[in-house]
Amino acid sequence: MRLLAGMTQLASDRPDAVTVADVAISAERLLGCARAVADEVAGAPVVAVHATPTVETVVGMVGALLAGAAVVPVPPDSGPAERRHLLTDSGAALLITTGAGTATTLSSGGHDTAGTGTADGDPALPRVPVDLTRLSSTDRPAPAPTDPALIMYTSGTTGAPKGVLLSHRAVEAGIDALVDAWAWSPDDILVHGLPLFHVHGLVLGVFGALRTGCRLRHTGRPLPERYAAAGGTLYFGVPTVWSRICAQPEAARALAGARLLVSGSAALPVPVFDRLRELTGHQPVERYGMTETLITVSSRVDGPRRAGYVGFPLDGVGTRVVDEAGRDVPADGESVGELRVRGPMLFDGYLNRPEATAAQLDADGWFRTGDIASVDPAGWHRIVGRASTDLIKSGGYRIGAGEVEDALLAHPGVREAAVVGRPHADLGEQVTAYVVADGVGEAELVDFVAGHLSVHKRPRQVRFVDALPRNAMGKVQKKLLATD
Ligand code: MCA
Ligand code: AMP
């Protein structure tokens, strides 16, 4: 398969092509196990994978891709309502179950098609467990470049998460642009410990390694001491991870021998950039992207890096910064506007949501990112904020305020709710809920939200207020909440 070309070209004398949380697998065995998964799921157009941080997840996803299915990564910590939404909205025909934390009643050999789903309310999908002792040599025709490779769920400002359709062609182009910018090669050893259900950890962090043919050492969780012990050449992290590494200078110093440190998914604070340089001798490369666009802007390994800036458009990418009337603002480093991007790595739209797609992606292929940016005369791009307060970035996770508000409002004691991201030293922003409620406390509300959504979407702080600030139209004035 073109997308994961490096996997088949990898030297078969590497017993550790992919290591996840200390479990290693060779490229040859990964391919054999993935082919066995492909034999089982062949014919299913859409396959969900329970995306635990395990080798089984990598095998399951590669297997589904080999079978020509679109993969839906399911966060292992997602609450029941969120899981149900992903599994039904995506039209997944099967759920591949993987390692620890996977609820499956399967005995080896067959699909669990018991008609009623699971106790936690999952739809009744056949379950296919990944079995690392099972091998196959069936070679299948490669999917077409325009076929969907992934359906990745991501939060919007309102409503439930939407499925982002990423084709094989887009994923290939997205990785190849980074191979060029970062001189990513089969000789690299990539280290990270990011979740395997988002673009950063999965598309860059797993498929990037398998396409490039470099070794991957996934640390299970992105803990500083594990990064320090991993002996990599290329390290990926979100800003929270880099800031935690800086807080452990010994761990940071252990990265001095690496080739390249890369930060993304949220703004890297300038003090963290500076501290990383002091401790490791490396100026990190910062890059900017979105689930819908993959990575579009980055500094280059062979070029300058600048704290607070995300670099230049990648090969094949066009960018514009526009005002509210859609007119380009001057590239003077001062004028700000909404960033729009165009390029071969963009998504094909939101699954079954043509209006949502049309609202973000125009007929000429320009995607409205919702990020506010400026560009200086030399072309340096800087992200200065978001157009809407309703998208929160916490620890690199994108969280829709509306989704959390809907979960809170489902509690009988909650009359009104407004959720914002408040500045947080470790996480960038923390999910903070302002509620008007009767007879319910903070812990109960956080637990209640946990019954619906993923762990990182739960409010870290609940503030009880008598009323929410509203304008004359009755709309909540979130900017007043965020700055009080
Ligand atoms: C977390 N915990 C909570 C809450 N939140 N408990 C109660 N209420 C909450 N609201 C629990 C956690 O489950 C954990 O428990 C413990 O508290 C510590 O949580 P936390 O501080 O969040 O630490 P962490 O679990 O170590 O998480 C920090 C993290 C994580 C590792 C930086 O946020 C992370 O993995 N972020 C990466 C997100 C990412 O990959 N985004 C990329 C999106 P326990 O210890 O028991 O487990 S893709 C993207 O953005 C684009 C394409 C791009 O540009 O890359
Ligand atoms: P997600 O779709 O989870 O991939 O989140 C995408 C959003 O993350 C973007 O719209 C930005 O707001 C933010 N983001 C990603 N990378 C950066 C970066 N290097 N600097 C600032 N914001 C970033």
Quick rundown:
With 484 residues, this protein is α/β, with parallel strands linked by helices. It is built from 14 helices and 24 strands. Helix 2 (27-41) packs across helix 3, helix 5 packs across helix 6 and helix 8 packs across helix 10.
How does this structure look, described?
The chain is α/β, with parallel strands linked by helices and 484 residues long. It folds into three domains: 2-181, 3-Layer(aba) Sandwich (Rossmann fold); 222-386, 3-Layer(aba) Sandwich (Rossmann fold), CATH 3.40.50; 391-482, 2-Layer Sandwich (GMP Synthetase, Chain A, domain 3). It is 27% helix and 26% strand. The chain has 14 helices and 24 strands. A hairpin with a 7-residue loop joins β7 (148-154) and β8 (162-167). The longest helix is centred in the first third of the chain and has 15 residues, at 27-41. The radius of gyration is 22 Å and the shape is globular. Residues 101-117 have low confidence and may be disordered. The structure holds methylmalonyl-coenzyme A and adenosine monophosphate.
What is the overall shape?
globular
CATH architect. name of the largest domain: 3-Layer(aba) Sandwich
Tell me about the largest β-sheet.
Answer: 9 strands, mixed
Share in β-strands: 25-35%
Estimate the helix proportion, in percent.
Answer: 25-40%
* Number of H/I helices: 14
- Named CATH topology of the largest domain: Rossmann fold
Structural category is: alpha/beta
Distance between the termini: 53 Å
Number of domains: 3
Main-sheet strand order equals: 2-1-10-9-11-12-13-14-15
By CATH, the superfamily of the largest domain comes out as ANL, N-terminal domain
Q: How many beta strands in the DSSP annotation?
A: 24
CATH class group of the largest domain: Alpha Beta
User: Please, what is the average pLDDT?
Assistant: 93
